[in-house]
Amino acid sequence: MALSTSSNFVSPDDAFRAIVEAHRGLTEAQSADLDAALVLVLANHIGDLDVLREAIALAKRRTLDASQQQQQQQQ
Amino acid sequence: MAQANTAQAKTQFGYRRHPDQDRSGANVAEHPVVVVGAGPVGLSLAIDLAQRGQRVVLLDDADRIGEGSRAICFSKRSLEFWDRLGVGDRMVEKGVVWSVGKIFHGASPLYQFNLLPEEGHKRPAFINLQQFYAEAYLVDRVEQLPEIDLRWRNKVIALEGRNDGVALTIATPEGTYQVHASFVVACDGARSSLRQMVGADFAGQVFEDQFLIADVKMTAAFPTERWFWFDPPFHAGRSALLHKQPDDIWRIDLQLNPDADPVAEKQPENVRPRIERMLGHDKFEFEWISLYKFQCRRMARFIHGRVIFAGDSAHQVSPFGARGANSGLEDAENLAWKLDRVLRRLSPEGLLETYHIERSAAADENIRESTRSTDFMAPVTRQEARLRQAVLSLAEDTEFGKRMVNGGRLSVPSVYDTPLSTSDRDDWRGGPRPGASMPDAPVTEQGGSSYLTDVFIRQGTRFTLLEFGNGAAADVPDGVGIIRVGGEGGLVDAQGLAGKRYDAEPGTAYLLRPDGYVAARFRNVTRPALDAALARAAGLN
C-alpha cells in the first residue's frame, strides 16, 4: 500500500488543530471552498496518482460506511 | 445574414450520370472500395487510397460543400497527413497559423501555453481554416486523380452484407441503382445513415449546456492566439472563446445556460449585444450564428463486416480540443494503407482489425479529454463548481493550479498500444516509442534544406527504415524505403535535432509504418530482426 496511514505528525493534535482553526469563523460555504482548495494543494504536494486514489477510496469508504450506518439506524 | 465567404473556392458541383446506373442484376458494377461521404475524412481517405493505386468510388448525397461554422482547427498531424496527399501547402498558405493559447479568468490573463515551443518542424502546431476551404482543396486534389470517381447526389439508401463484400443501393436524381463493393468505408458524419443501416449503437454522454457559435467578420488587431475566458466580464459566470480564421473572420464561442431558449438566443439582435460587450465595439458583421449542444460517444466496433466507419460516423466529441475533424483524419491515414494492403492481398484481412483497435482507443482518449474539458467548463454539481473555482483561484499564484485549468486540451496524435508494434528490446532515453508518430526534424540534403516528414513522403509513404548512419547501410528488403541520416551520402543533421528527437546513436534505426508511425526501433538493426518487425507491422503474424 503506497498510502501511509501510520501517524506521520510528531504532534497529531497540532495538525488537527491547525485544520480546525482554519475553519473557525467561516460559513459552511466558505468552509467548503477552503476544503476544496486545501485538498487540491495537498493532492498536488503528494503528486502521486496512486496514493491520491487510495486516499480517496479510504475517505469515501468512511463516508459510505457512515451513511449506511445511519440508514440502518433509521430502519 | 451574409453567406459564408466561399468566393475563393469552388463549392457547387453537378450530378452526372454514371454508366454503373445502367447496370443491374448479374451485371452490377463491382468496385474494390466505395467511400461514402465527401467530407474531409472521406476525401482524404479516397486520395490516400488513390495515391496507393486503388480505384475508389466516392459518394456524396449533396452536390455542394457545406458552408457555415464547422471545424476550424487543423493539427500539425493533420497537416503532415495532408502534405502526403499533396494539399498541405495550400491549406497552410490559406490558414491562420497559431501555437499559443491564452486563458483568462475574469478580465485578467491567467496563463498561456505554447503547443509547439520548439523550432525545427515543417508544420505549425495548428492552422485555423474554415472546413469548406479544406474540403474545396481536397476536391481539387481528387479531380487530379483519375483513380477516384466522385459522384455527387448519390445517396446510399440500403446496404446488404455479402460474404465477399457489400451490396449498396444508391438513390440519384435519376432513380436508384446498385453497386457491389469489396469494402465500404462510411465517412458520412455524426448522423451516419450507414451506421443505422448496419444496426450499430452509438452510445455515450449528452451534455446539457448549450453553446452559441458566432463567426463574425471584422478587422481586429488581436494576436492569432486561442483566447479562452472563464467568467469574463462580458459574459458573467460562463465561458467564452475567441479564435481567428482566414478572411478576417473570428470564431466566437459562448457558453449559454442549459435552459437558454435556442430560438431566441440565435436571433442576431440578441447575439449582437453579447458580442459587442465582448469586443468593446460594434464594427462587425455576422457570417454565421448557430447554437449547439454536444455529445461524446462512439460505436462499440468501427468495423461491421465489410463496412468500416471513420470520422464522426464512428465517434463524436465536444469541440473543445479540436479533436473532431483531426481524429477523423487520423482515422483516414490509419485505414488507408491497411485497406490498400488487404485489397492487394499483401496482408490478411485481420490487419483491418488493428484499425479498430488503434482508432477506437484513440476515440476513447479523445472522448476522455474532451469530456474533462467540458466538465471543467460546465461543472455539474455545486461541489464540482467549488473545486473548479478553487483551481481557478489557485492558478493565480501557483504553477500547479495553472496546469489544472482546463479550457480545452488540444489534439495530439495518440500513441497506439497495438499488436503491430515490436516491443523495445534495447535501452532508450527518449525518442518516439513503437506506436508513436514520427517526430519531424530539419535535415539538409545536397545543399538544400528539408524535413524528415518530407523525405518520408519522397520515400513513397510506405514501410521505411529511418537509419542513423554508422558506415554500411542496413540491408532492407525490397519495397521498403530507406532514410539515412549521417554517414556517407546520408542526410545531414546540421542542428542535431533529428538525432536528439530520435535519441539516436550511430546504428540506431526506426522502422516507420506507411502512416508515419513507429513500428519498431533498434540500436543495431539486423536483417532477421527487421524482417520480423516488418511481418508483425503488416499483420502477417
UniProtKB/TrEMBL annotation, chain A:
It comes from the Bacteria. This is DUF2783 domain-containing protein.
